[in-house]
Structure formats: C-alpha cells, structure tokens
Design goal:
The chain is α+β, with helices and mostly antiparallel strands. The protein has 3 domains: 1-100, no CATH class; 102-143; 153-198. The chain has 5 helices and 8 strands. It is elongated and about 70 Å long. The mean pLDDT is 83.
Length: 204
C-alpha cells in the first residue's frame, strides 16, 4: 500500500498510508507518520502528544482514474517542561502550513498553462481554485521578460480580470507583425505610466 507514496511523488519518506477509502471516483488516503520520540526545540525536554488533528488536503494527481484526497493525521505536541509548555503541530514537507492543496499543485498549474487552448478560468475550474489564485501561481513561478519595443507598436485592451481594480489588461503588440511584446495587468495610468517611464529613453 505504501508504494503509492512514491507514485504520488510525496516528499516525506517516513509517512505511511494506513487506510484507503473509495467512494465513487474519489480515493481518500489516510496518511500518518509512525510514533517517534519528540523533543522540544526550545528547552530540549520530552514532548507529549495532545492528540491527533485531522487535516484534509486535495492532491491533483490522478491515480488509476480516481481523484485523490489526502487525510493527514497530524499529532499535536506539547513540551512537558512546565516552565516552557511549547506547542507545535506535526508538519509534512509535501504541504505547506495553511494550504489545502499539496505543493505539487503549483507546478501542475504552471504546466497547464503550456496548453494554448487552456484559459485561467478552465485551469481554475479543474483545480477547484479561483481565477485570481491561478494567476498568482503563474506570476510566482514564471517570469516573462518584456521584448524590445519595435519602431511601431499598437496597444489594445482585453478583458482578463487580472487586477482587482481593473478588469481590462493592456496588450502591446508589434504594429507590423501583430506579435505580442508585453502584457500589463491593467490599463490604468497608475500601472501604464511607471511601466513606460521605466523603458530606456533611447528605446522609446
């Protein structure tokens, strides 16, 4: 059963899958770690478990045609030193604190943008996220440098909803070939003016 952790590309080598629940086309994997002695990082005293916190995480990688949900059983630790009483929840490397999806989700979203037939809306729907969030993921990992301005350009507006204050993005294209040069998240002066000022005068 635990070979599935390799298939799912989970980063934690010490986790185990204690149970699998199948409902329709959804598999829920119960994931936990074996009990080991834990010591306080503050004072070095032994830490005691205060129970288990269950945390549901979506994992977008399909397995045998099933969608996957990971149910993490995280131990809650408290330092036994009465002068310390430091508390911490067990953590897993494959999911960051406060996230409801595994870290693999970010890379899958970026990969989805390679398909020119995909839109942010379709990607967001597939991963059960908002359009804004998948935009943020793309911007976080992908840096698209501006191409040099040509001798003649034209500017157009397109409804992309990339900015909270403006629903229209600004597209800069080569006048002769119509090839895109850059895309600004908003057509507002507060965005366009600093952008054009930052371009060297010799190029402008």
């Amino acid at each position: 059963m635990n070979n599935i952790t390799d298939l799912l590309d989970l980063e934690d080598s010490d986790i185990k899958i204690s149970d699998i629940i199948i409902e329709g086309q959804t598999k829920t994997l119960i994931i936990e770690t074996p009990p080991v002695a834990s010591y306080c990082p503050i004072c070095g005293f032994r830490m005691h478990s205060r129970g288990v916190k269950k945390r549901t995480i979506n994992h977008p990688i399909l397995q045998d045609g099933y969608s996957l949900i990971l149910l993490l059983k995280q131990r809650r630790w408290r330092c036994s030193n009465p002068d310390c009483l430091y508390e911490v929840n067990e953590s897993f490397r494959f999911v960051n604190k406060g996230r409801r999806t595994t870290n693999a989700t970010d890379m899958l979203i970026v990969e989805a943008y390679r398909n020119l037939l995909e839109t942010s809306a379709s990607i967001a729907k597939r991963f059960h996220m908002s359009d804004t969030y998948v935009h943020e993921i793309f911007d976080r990992y992908v840096k698209l440098d501006r191409l040099p301005l040509t001798d003649a350009i034209f500017i157009d507006e397109v409804h992309l909803d990339m900015d909270d204050d403006c629903k229209y993005a600004l597209v800069i294209q080569d006048f002769h070939t119509s090839n895109p040069i850059d895309l600004l998240r908003s057509r507002r002066t507060s965005v366009t003016e600093p952008y054009f000022v930052s371009i060297p005068a010799t190029e402008r």
